[in-house]
Design a protein that fits this description.
The chain is of the alpha+beta class and 156 residues long. Helices cover 29% and strands 32% of the residues. The longest helix has 15 residues.
């Protein structure tokens, strides 16, 4: 596979070790092995991976709750940031949410994480509030919402 042509696919339990490795490298180990197993095994928790040269370069995960897609994680390998891979993964996850009937997407993002805030704004997310002291380190989180486009009635 050419690194200029990343491939997208649904994350499965077979991707457990790749997900854990990227989580560790990009986010410092946000989720435990048990949490990852739960995420990857539950059909109401879609996850999309961007693969380059047989390596998981970026991923986005979420939870489908009634008509909402709650984005739980977006990660890009530190050596491959600012190449559009996180955007590619998140865009694919949003499309899967639409396909599953979600009409909104929501997430929390560290207020100080300018790169992530910029990515979400570029995709149309808007701030709806602040969770003070949300993160372990005491940082605030911005609550972000996005109205998703309606699913095509013709199945396209």
């Amino acid at each position: 596979m050419n690194v200029r042509n990343p491939s997208l696919r649904q994350l499965t339990i077979a991707d457990l070790e790749a997900c854990r490795a990227l989580d560790q490298e990009a986010l410092g180990g946000l989720w435990s092995e048990t949490q990852w197993r739960t995420e990857l095994a539950d059909g109401r928790r879609p996850g999309v991976g961007v693969w380059q040269a047989e390596r998981l370069a970026a991923m986005a995960c979420g939870w489908l709750v009634v008509d909402e897609l709650h984005i739980t994680l977006v990660a890009t390998h530190p050596g491959q940031r600012r190449q559009g891979l996180g955007r590619l993964a998140l865009s694919a996850l949003l499309q899967r949410g639409v396909g599953a009937g979600a009409v909104h997407a929501t997430l929390e993002v560290a207020a100080a994480n300018a790169a992530a805030v910029g990515l979400y704004a570029a995709l149309g997310f808007q701030s709806a509030g602040v969770r003070r002291g949300y993160y372990r380190n005491g940082d605030d989180a911005l609550i972000q919402w996005l109205r998703l486009p309606a699913r095509s009635q013709s199945g396209e």
